[in-house]
Each structure stands twice: as C-alpha cells, then as structure tokens.
Amino acid sequence: MNKIMKYGLLTLAIVGMLSSCNDLKNAKDNNYPAPIIPEPPVGTVFTISELVEMVTISGDPDYKNDTIFKDDSSIYGIITDDETSGNLYKASFIQERATGKAIELYMKSVTGLRIGDSVRVCLKGATLGAYKNTPQIQDLSPLNVVILENLKFIEPEVTLITDVIAQNKICQLVRLENVQFVAADTTKNWAENDDYGERTLEQFVQIDSVTWNKVGEIMVRTSNYAAFGNKPLPTGNGYLTAIVTRYRDTWQLVVRDDNARDVYMEGERH
C-alpha cells in the first residue's frame, strides 16, 4: 500500500512538472503580457490657461522662476504636434479646445504620442517654466501621460502673422493663408544639411481685385532631422499650418509635416 501511494505521488509530481513546463513554454511562445502600470492619480486639475499664466516671460529669456509640482495634479488637452516627422525630439504640444491655450511638453524620453490624442498629463514631479520664452512643462516621464481617446483633432486657427504676435498665440496651432517664402529663400531646402533651417515667411492681404499688401513676416525653423528637412521649400503662394514658438525675442513657426494637410503653396506669388 505504501508503495502504491509512493508511486502515485511520484506520478502526480511528474504530471505537475510537465504541466508547469507546458505553461512556461506557452508563456514564452506567446510572450508574457506587459505589466499593468496603474494610472497616476488625478489630484488637483489645472487648465492649460492657468499654467501659461503662471509662467514668467521676462525681458531676460534666461530668467528662471520655475514651479515644481510636488503634489498630485493634472491637465487635460489635445496633442497638436508630435515626434513623427522628426521635427521635434522628446517633445510635443498640447492645447485645450475651449480656450485655445497651449503649452509644450518636454519629455525625458521619446513617446508614442500622436496628433489628435486626447490626454491627461500628471504633473507631479514635473517642472513648469519657459525655454527662451516658450512655456514648457519639463522633466515629464512618458508614464505621466495617459491617453484617453484618439483622433480628437483640433482645427488650426486661421490668423495673421501680426495677430500671432499681438495676441500671444504661443504654442498654439495656427494656419496662415496667402503666405510665401521670401524670394531669397526659394532656392533653399527646409533645413541645412547639418543644422536647423531658419527661413522667412511673408504674408499678404488683398486690398482690391489686383492689389495685395504685405502685412508681416515670421521665421519658420526646421530641424535637419525632420523627414522633409532636405526637401526644397515650396516656391509659390498658399497656406501653411504650424505651431507658434518663440526663441528669445524671435517668433517662430514649427511645421508638423510638409504634406498638403499643413503646407500647400502652389499658387502664384504676390
């Protein structure tokens, strides 16, 4: 009887071991599921408008008056620019639909964020400040950004270069119509081979059926790492959609991509 029990227990042990081996093999073949990472707490909810108002833009762009978020807090908004084209690195822009106010998110590493993502950004541990007069939320971990929905795009505001500056549309998605690159830039690419490209965009408004007046200029700054950086600039007149930024006292545009969604300048020059 003892022998029977002994052999029976041994058989069960072997069966258990085989079963465990099969489970391990199946887990290895199918990969283990990604660990479940809990979402960061919501805490106090700020609007992007409130954060932008908290940022000090002074005459000295190197002035530091940063705010470090030590408690649980969040903002909500829509991603309006991402890293897909290579014109941004470890950065994106977020805008709130209600007011149009926006701010740059500067991350600790690259992210999977995409234009149109509706997100919640957990601010705990991050820093609110400005880089050369562009408001930023800095030191953000990608784990601090919770994607709520996709394809919730924000339409760019059609505006004038003069209003971009006068109305402080910093970090906002805008569309400028009746624009062209100045003649001196039309033989250039978007960017230099080994550096950023800084190209001048000019805008016109129609006075009568034959007369167009120039109303302003703004710089378009493009990274040489952008997928379209080594492509020639468009030479005609048309529209351009971009994010407004600022470097010291220079207002700039960051183009998301050179596709027809954002850039179409095939019309006759003014």
Please outline the helices and strands.
Elements: H1 2-30, E1 44-45, H2 48-54, E2 67-68, E3 73-81, E4 91-95, E5 102-107, E6 118-122, E7 127-131, E8 134-140, E9 145-149, E10 157-159, H3 161-166, E11 173-181, E12 197-206, E13 212-222, E14 237-247, E15 250-255, E16 263-267
Parallel strand pairs: 1-3, 5-8, 10-11, 13-15
Antiparallel strand pairs: 2-7, 3-4, 3-6, 4-5, 6-9, 7-8, 11-12, 11-14, 12-13, 14-15, 14-16
Overall residue-averaged pLDDT value: 89
Strand content: 35-45%
Q: What is the total tally of β strands?
A: 16
Fraction in helix: 10-25%
What oligomeric state do the depicted chains represent? single chain
At the first level of CATH, the class of the largest domain is Mainly Beta
Question: Which structural class best describes the helix and strand composition?
Answer: alpha+beta
CATH topology-level fold name of the largest domain: OB fold (Dihydrolipoamide Acetyltransferase, E2P)
Low-confidence spans: pLDDT under 50, at least 5 residues? 1-18
CATH architectural name of the largest domain: Beta Barrel
Instruction: Spell out the helices and strands N to C.
Output: HEHEEEEEEEEEHEEEEEE
- First CA to last CA: what distance? 104 Å
**Domain module count:** 2
Can you give a write-up of this model?
The protein is of the alpha+beta class and 270 residues long. It has helices spanning 2-30, 48-54, 161-166, and strands at residues 44-45, 67-68, 73-81, 91-95, 102-107, 118-122, 127-131, 134-140, 145-149, 157-159, 173-181, 197-206, 212-222, 237-247, 250-255, 263-267. The strands form two sheets. Strands 1, 2, 3, 4, 5, 6, 7, 8 and 9 form a nine-stranded mixed sheet that branches. Strand 4 and strand 5 form a beta hairpin. The protein is globular, with a radius of gyration of 26 Å. The protein starts with a helix and ends with a strand. Mean pLDDT is 89; it is low at 1-18.
